[in-house]
Amino acid sequence: MILTKQQVLNTNKAIVTEKVLTVEDLHVSFTTFGGEVQALRGVTFDLYKGETLAIVGESGCGKSVTANTIMGLIPQPPGKIKNGKVLFKEKNLVKMSKSRLRKVQGVDISMIFQDPMTALNPTLQIGEQLTEGLRTHQKLSKAAAYTKAIEMLNMVGIPNPKERMKQYPHQFSGGMRQRIVIAIALICEPELLIADEPTTALDVTIQAQILELFIEIQKKMGVSIILITHDLGVVAKIADRIAVMYAGKIIETGDKREIFYTPQHPYTKGLLNSVPRLDLLEEELQPIEGTPPDLFSPPKGCPFTDRCPFAMEVCGEVYPESTERSKTHVVDCWLQDERSKLFS
Ligand code: SF4
C-alpha cells in the first residue's frame, strides 16, 4: 500500500550532492540459445552520499542486471558488458581486475539479496560469518572483530547478541536472518549498499520492521543505498529518489514527490495507477495492458510505444531525448518534446 501525499512528504530528507557512484551509458547483453538479449541499453544515473535511490519497474526491465553489473556479478560469458562505465571513487569498476574488485566488494560496496537463507552459510555460526569480513578485509584481531560483531548485532536489533553469536542460521526466524544479513553487509562500513528486493521474501509485519531498520541505519551510518524493488509501497517509505526502468532503459528519474505526484512518463503513470493507494478507490486501479517488448530485437524508438495510449508516429521510429523538468526530474518521452509536432 502506497503512503498518502503527506506521509510521503514527511519522509523526504535533504540530499547531499556529493556523488558516490556514476553509471554511464551502460549496455549489457546475454548470449542465449535464442540469440542475444539486450538487457541494459544505455543505463545512466548518479547516486549521492547518504541517499536512497530506488530502481523500480516490472520484472525483466533490467533492475537486477544493473545491480549485479555494479557488483561485478555478471558471469561473462554468457553476459557481456558491451559499453559504459560504473565509476566508484573515480575508478571504473567495469575495467577493474577481479582481485581488486573483490577488495571493493564487501568493504566499500555491499549487497543484500532477497532470500536471507541463501545469503547465509547454514554450516557456520553467525559469529564466524559476521567476523569474516573484518578479519579478511580490515585485518582486525579476533577480539576486536568479535566486539564489533556484537555491536553490529545490537544495532540491527538482535536481542542477546553475545549468546546468539554461537548460533546457526536455522535457529533464527526469517526476519532475524535478514537482520543478520544486513549486519554482515554493513559490518565493514561500506559507502554503498545495494539491496535487491530485500523485503520480498518476508511477511508484511516483518517487512515494515526491516524497512524501519534501513531508515535507522542510514541515519546512523550515512550509507548510500540503491534499492531494487517492484514494490512501490516500499519505495514510498524509504526512497529519496526514484529511477523508473523499462525495457533496459531508465525512462524517468525524479525525487520521490516528483515521481509519485507529478509523474510525466505514461509508463510511470501506468505503474502508479496499477497498485493500491490510500487515496485511490479499488475500482480506479488500472493494470497496464500488453507486455514489454522482446529484448532479443528491441524497438528502435520508444519501447513503450505498443502499450502507450499517447503514442505518436515518431515514437516507434526515434527514441526520445531526455527532457529536464527540474534539476532532479528527467523524462524520456516525446510528449515532453516540442519537436514531436514536426513529425506529425
Ligand atoms: Fe508514449 Fe511516445 Fe512517450 Fe513513448 S515517447 S511514452 S510512446 S508518448
Fill in the keyword field for this structure.
344 residues; alpha/beta; Rossmann fold; eight-stranded mixed β-sheet; four-stranded antiparallel β-sheet; 14 helices; 12 strands; 23% strand; binds iron/sulfur cluster
Overview of this structure, please?
The protein is α/β, with parallel strands linked by helices and 344 residues long. The protein folds into two domains: 1-108 and 191-203 and 216-298, Rossmann fold (3-Layer(aba) Sandwich); 116-189, no CATH class. It is built from 14 helices and twelve strands. The protein has helices spanning 5-10, 63-70, 98-104, 116-119, 126-136, 142-155, 161-164, 174-186, 204-221, 232-238, 256-261, 266-273, 313-317, 340-343; strands at residues 19-32, 35-48, 52-56, 79-88, 91-92, 109-112, 192-196, 224-229, 241-246, 249-255, 322-324, 330-332. Strands 6-7-8-3-9-10-12-11 form an eight-stranded mixed sheet, sandwiched between helices. A four-stranded antiparallel sheet has the order 2-1-4-5, covered by helices on one side. α9 (204-221) links the parallel β7 (192-196) and β8. α5 (126-136) crosses α6 and α8 packs parallel to α9 (204-221). The longest helix is centred in the middle third of the chain and has 18 residues, at 204-221. Bound molecules: iron/sulfur cluster. The site of iron/sulfur cluster (SF4) has 14 residues, from loops. Iron/sulfur cluster (SF4) is lined by residues 265-266, 302, 304-305, 308, 310-312, 315, 320, 333-335.
